[in-house]
Amino acid sequence: MPTIYLITPTYYRHVQKAELTRLAHTFMLVPNLHWIVIEDSEVKTKLVFHFLHESGLNFTHLNVATPSHYKMDSTDPNWLKPRGVLQRNAGLQWIRDNFDPDHQQGVIYFADDDNTYDIRLFDEMRWTRKASVWPVGLVGYLRYESPVVKNSKVIGWFTYWEPNRPFAMDMAGFAINAELLFDFPDAKFKLQVRRGYQESEFLSQLVTIDQLEPKAEDCTKVLVWHTRTEKPQMKNEDKFKKKGLPGSDMNVEI
Amino acid sequence: MPTIYLITPTYYRHVQKAELTRLAHTFMLVPNLHWIVIEDSEVKTKLVFHFLHESGLNFTHLNVATPSHYKMDSTDPNWLKPRGVLQRNAGLQWIRDNFDPDHQQGVIYFADDDNTYDIRLFDEMRWTRKASVWPVGLVGYLRYESPVVKNSKVIGWFTYWEPNRPFAMDMAGFAINAELLFDFPDAKFKLQVRRGYQESEFLSQLVTIDQLEPKAEDCTKVLVWHTRTEKPQMKNEDKFKKKGLPGSDMNVEI
Ligand SMILES: O=c1ccn([C@@H]2O[C@H](COP(=O)(O)OP(=O)(O)O)[C@@H](O)[C@H]2O)c(=O)[nH]1
Ligand SMILES: O=c1ccn([C@@H]2O[C@H](COP(=O)(O)OP(=O)(O)O)[C@@H](O)[C@H]2O)c(=O)[nH]1
Ligand SMILES: [Mn+2]
Ligand SMILES: [Mn+2]
């Protein structure tokens, strides 16, 4: 059975451990996974290190920091500060360095840490030949975005925004065979890419539209949702401090 | 091994199925659970019905609608529109009707559909004698709220807001032995309760503070987080409609 390599960029914020916790639970239910977690950080944090070791999952822990000037708001609205770009590339590089395409079978999926994945999604992608595609829920200010399928072929894209992009898909909407990384050794994500074209530019390096394999019952089932978690306010920590009181114990990890 | 009865109120919104999906994944990893899901709805919806049947989990599916006048914003700021009150009571009633305290062992936990639960939390609560308590992350505008423990006894509450409430705890911070429902047959949640006193009023009917059993290493570990999910915008569905186009296919469930 091919191994599914999950590439997950992650960064520190208050909800990080909660997100990783429910994500790990999903992954615990799926056989033959290899979770590549790449922290957007100068160093590997204790939180993620211990979390991964305690999880019992098959994982690789990497880190690479997004350069701070890329994190600033760009003046050109066509370039957005990149999220997870260098981290996903680090994951791809790890696979190029550690996977043997002549003796192993593998599929690669970019699993952001805040999305929601139905475990049946992994059955759908497991036997990807080149690139599999499916709908993504709660994205693009729509109930879902999806490839448009006719006679089991992708013929276009159901999105409101720029459906004429070559691959008008969210990161959560496709998986690729690991072999492609060796057929196209330079393929990667770019720090500077036209806004909304990251996925499209990446896939253009690897496949053509006629090679796409529609999954999830010809793209009629939603098995992944682009959920986002509210940023919790900490205003009572500040109020404690203003009163000269310590607030929560920083030794208690959240 | 005592059965853990999870009481989960839930209501329709775009993220509902995603929330239930990741929640179910967590529960699939825990032995001897019984999931009581109560829809805040006049009828049982197809979405929840099919979801539960496909989950493979041991469940009971109930419904009771919150009366609409309780859902309106109250003019008195001390009374907040109740969330999940009648639903949790329906769950308690089901246990009173179906559980045999003379021949079964059970623990009850109120598991809201949007929180994040570490599976180790269920080990902590499994052997609750009266009521177990532990910290809850990301609640009360703090990193966490927690019982204050001294010599393995609860002596107070770490919260910013009204730490002098009898039980200054979030719904996610305690579990009770099912026997208590039979010792105190009238104990329940109230539709009208002083804002922020729902949990405290409920527990006051069942236990005294000296009976509380602190868990999670004397309340130093956070194993549950009061996460909240962003409400996704659907503005491009509206734009499709304004252009006279159909938008997403309503037969595709999200
Ligand atoms: O500064 C950042 C912001 C985000 N991410 C990660 O990149 C992915 C996509 O980010 P996010 O979910 O915030 O993007 P969106 O939900 O807006 O698509 C997630 O796995 C994040 O944890 C990151 O590594 N560094
Ligand atoms: O109208 C409502 C609002 C909420 N809930 C449920 O009640 C619980 C608590 O609601 P919520 O998570 O919105 O509350 P908060 O996060 O503000 O504590 C959750 O399981 C919800 O699904 C409900 O049944 N009906
Ligand atoms: Mn995201
Ligand atoms: Mn909630």
Automatic annotation (TrEMBL), chains A, B:
Cellular component, GO, one term: Golgi membrane
Binding-site residues for UDP-alpha-D-glucuronate, renumbered to this chain: P9, T10, Y11, D40, R83, R88, D112, D113, D114, H226, T227, R228
Cofactor(s) essential for the protein: Mn(2+)
Main location: membrane
Entry membrane topology: Single-pass type II membrane protein
Pathway connected to this protein: Protein modification; protein glycosylation
Reactions listed under catalytic activity: 3-O-(beta-D-galactosyl-(1->3)-beta-D-galactosyl-(1->4)-beta-D-xylosyl)-L-seryl-[protein] + UDP-alpha-D-glucuronate = 3-O-(beta-D-GlcA-(1->3)-beta-D-Gal-(1->3)-beta-D-Gal-(1->4)-beta-D-Xyl)-L-seryl-[protein] + UDP + H(+)
Coiled coil: none
Annotated Pfam families: Glyco_transf_43
Site note Interaction with galactose moiety of substrate glycoprotein, residues: E145, N236
Active-site residues per Swiss-Prot or TrEMBL entry: E199 (proton donor/acceptor)
Entry's Gene Ontology molecular function annotations: galactosylgalactosylxylosylprotein 3-beta-glucuronosyltransferase activity; metal ion binding
Gene Ontology BP, a term: carbohydrate metabolic process
Region (Disordered): 235-254
UniProt-annotated binding residues for Mn(2+): D114
Intracellular or extracellular location(s): Endomembrane system; Golgi apparatus membrane
PANTHER family in the cross-refs: GALACTOSYLGALACTOSYLXYLOSYLPROTEIN 3-BETA-GLUCURONOSYLTRANSFERASE 3, GALACTOSYLGALACTOSYLXYLOSYLPROTEIN 3-BETA-GLUCURONOSYLTRANSFERASE BETA-1,3-GLUCURONYLTRANSFERASE
Similarity section: Belongs to the glycosyltransferase 43 family.
Name of this chain's protein: Galactosylgalactosylxylosylprotein 3-beta-glucuronosyltransferase
Organism: Capitella teleta (Polychaete worm)
